[in-house]
Design goal:
heterodimer, A: mainly alpha, 13 helices, B: 215 residues, alpha+beta, Alpha-Beta Plaits, 2 domains, 6 helices
């Protein structure tokens, strides 16, 4: 960054574009699509049912491929696209059209700050990166913002507009109630969410997820405790953040805005791919919130110092990056499955219980967590 | 007080208010089922009896014996329709879905027989009153089938031939017995009807019976 040159700028723009395309088309959308199938299949496994398993693809010579029903998401997408795009006659056409996009876009934008692997050494791809000093590292993170997670909170809180506007623009009482519930719920839990990660900020001294991940290089180390995973330093913070994140995705223990058995919620008037966007946006939020949680509390792409250094010493840089990305994906996948497990195990809260839990339990606890963390850090620095 | 009253103290204990122990327990239960079924699927050890799902078009659940389904018209020993067009069933039918047009029966023993016998299965409410009202066991609802889906409404109306095609000879005493029938039945020697005798319950078909009893 010492000298400005257009070549450097062009390289950075190209690099960012490639990373955006890879994250959106190569990671987020496929994973979210597979989650729409996994949710049904996993819940079936949990409830002694069969689940979706009948969709198949027929290849000319080789025959039918069932793939355990994974292709159901393709069938769903085809169905969504060819369904009638119904707009109620009294709906606000413009907002009705844009609300699904506004609900889904934040989940994609937020992915910009997620670090998804170690730095790629562009000038020296084929040497092992054990103790390599790289002169042109490409961080596997779309945007390194100093405000980091503040960006996450700023953008993810925009998702509430999608839900609320969908409810309002539909000209339907149930949709309206769903939108109102969504706004009250998401605003309440955003406060807890922000408070819960303050402890992690204090511990790592940074807001930037890439930097926070870089500091969690040890799995659990008592010598330099502040380099171990966030879950060991902020267990309470993690539980609070997890709860708030599930509430933000508006899924079952907190699915008041949707309320399938009663008001169907803010997307009751939507059909076809517009409903599909809401549906997909929900799963994208699961992926991105899992990624944020992993970055903050589970070491990002790190798997402990031993594993990291082993792969770094024995593999060329490009393979090392690929392996660590794959392992990070495993982490994300496990986390998504855990969120699905919660969604299919717990009953719903009532609306008043939900707000009471948010404001009277989680928020005070998160404040206590921040103060206690600060005091412990102060005490550790003095001694 | 006669009724037992269970006093529930709310809010409960501290661990109950924390939610977390109960949540962990619940997640444990569902996760146990998930692991069991998942590895059962992988190894092929998952038993049919462990799965609550019935894959409907391929496998069907056996209906109970008294299940009311599609109508059928029973037959005499000689293959003629048993119905004597007495108009009991269209009279009792609450949905007015039975249409009978009578004509004179060719043999002298029976006065009438139906020329047209139509049942609109789309109007039928499957109450079973017609089968109960029938004095000569001519109309039954024990086929064990549902009304079939059709593309046109007209196809939902079944005519006499269609209804008779599911019918078989009845075990009941054939018509023309008249008054004091109880005495006559005991005196008249019963000739066993030729052909198949209607069994109890739905007819045995290609239906695959699934044993739903858990082990």
């Amino acid at each position: 960054m010492s000298t400005f040159s257009y070549g450097q700028l062009g390289f950075q723009v190209l690099e960012a574009l490639v990373k955006i395309l890879f994250m959106v088309l190569g990671f987020l959308m496929p994973l979210a699509s597979i989650l729409t199938w996994l949710e049904r299949r996993q819940s079936a496994m949990m409830q002694d049912r069969l689940g979706p398993k009948r969709a198949y693809i027929k290849l000319p010579i080789i025959g039918k491929f069932y793939l355990w029903g994974i292709l159901h998401f393709v069938a769903d997408a085809v169905k969504f696209i060819f369904k009638e795009d119904y707009v109620p006659s009294k709906a606000h056409k413009f907002l009705f059209m844009w609300a699904p996009i506004m609900a889904m876009a934040p989940a994609l934008i937020v992915a910009a700050i997620i670090p998804f692997g170690p730095s790629l050494c562009w000038s020296d791809l084929w040497h092992s990166s054990g103790n390599l000093v790289c002169d042109q590292p490409v961080p596997l993170q779309i945007a390194r913002l100093d405000i980091g997670l503040l960006f996450y909170f700023a953008i993810s809180s925009l998702a509430v507009y999608g839900a609320t506007l969908a409810g309002w623009a539909s000209h339907n009482k149930w949709a309206m109630m769903g939108g109102l519930r969504a706004s009250s719920q998401m605003m309440s839990y955003e406060v807890t969410m922000g408070m819960a990660v303050l402890g992690a900020f204090l511990v790592y001294g940074s807001l930037e997820p890439g930097e926070i991940v870089a500091k969690q290089s040890q799995f659990l180390s008592f010598d330099n405790f502040r380099q171990s995973w966030g879950i060991f330093m902020q267990p309470l913070g993690f539980v609070l953040f997890l709860t708030a994140a599930i509430a933000e995705t508006k899924r079952t223990p907190f699915d008041i805005p949707e309320g399938e058995p009663e008001i169907i919620g803010y997307f009751v008037e939507y059909s076809g791919m517009r409903f599909g966007l809401f549906f997909l946006g929900e799963f994208l939020e699961i992926v991105t919130s899992s990624a944020i949680m992993i970055s903050l509390f589970f070491g990002g792409w790190h798997w402990g110092a031993n594993v990291d250094s082993f792969f770094a010493a024995h593999l060329p840089n490009v393979l090392f990056v690929l392996v660590m990305f794959a392992l990070w994906t495993v982490k994300i996948f496990v986390f998504c499955m855990f969120q699905l497990l919660i969604r299919w195990s717990l009953p719903r809260f009532r609306s008043d219980q939900l707000l009471r839990l948010g404001w009277q339990r989680l928020l005070p606890l998160s404040i206590v967590n921040v103060v206690a963390t600060a005091l412990i850090i102060l005490w550790a620095q003095r001694s | 007080m006669a009724v037992g009253v269970k006093v529930v103290n709310r809010p409960g204990s501290f661990s109950q208010q924390m939610f977390l122990p109960a949540i962990a327990e619940g997640l444990g239960v569902t996760f146990r089922h998930f692991v069991k079924n998942f590895f059962g699927n992988v190894t092929g050890q998952r038993k049919k009896t462990d799965i609550a799902t019935i894959e409907y078009p391929e496998e069907k659940k056996a209906y109970p014996e008294r299940f009311r389904g599609l109508h059928r018209l029973m037959l005499r020993d000689d293959g003629q329709v048993r119905c004597v067009a007495c108009m009991m069933c269209p009279t009792v039918c609450p949905a007015h879905c039975i249409t009978i047009v009578a004509e004179e029966a060719p043999d002298g023993k029976i006065e009438k027989r139906p020329r047209i016998f139509e049942i609109d299965e789309l109007r039928c409410v499957v109450c079973g009153l017609c089968a109960e009202a029938c004095p000569c066991d001519a109309i039954r609802m024990d086929t064990g089938e549902h009304a079939h889906p059709t593309y046109r409404r007209v196809d939902g109306i079944l005519d006499k031939e269609e209804l008779m095609s599911r019918g078989i000879a009845s075990r009941a005493v054939q018509g023309g017995v008249g008054a004091f029938w109880r005495e006559k039945i005991t005196n008249v020697p019963q000739t066993p009807p030729s052909g198949d005798v209607a069994p109890l319950g739905p007819p045995a078909g290609p239906t695959q019976v699934v044993d739903l009893s858990r082990k």
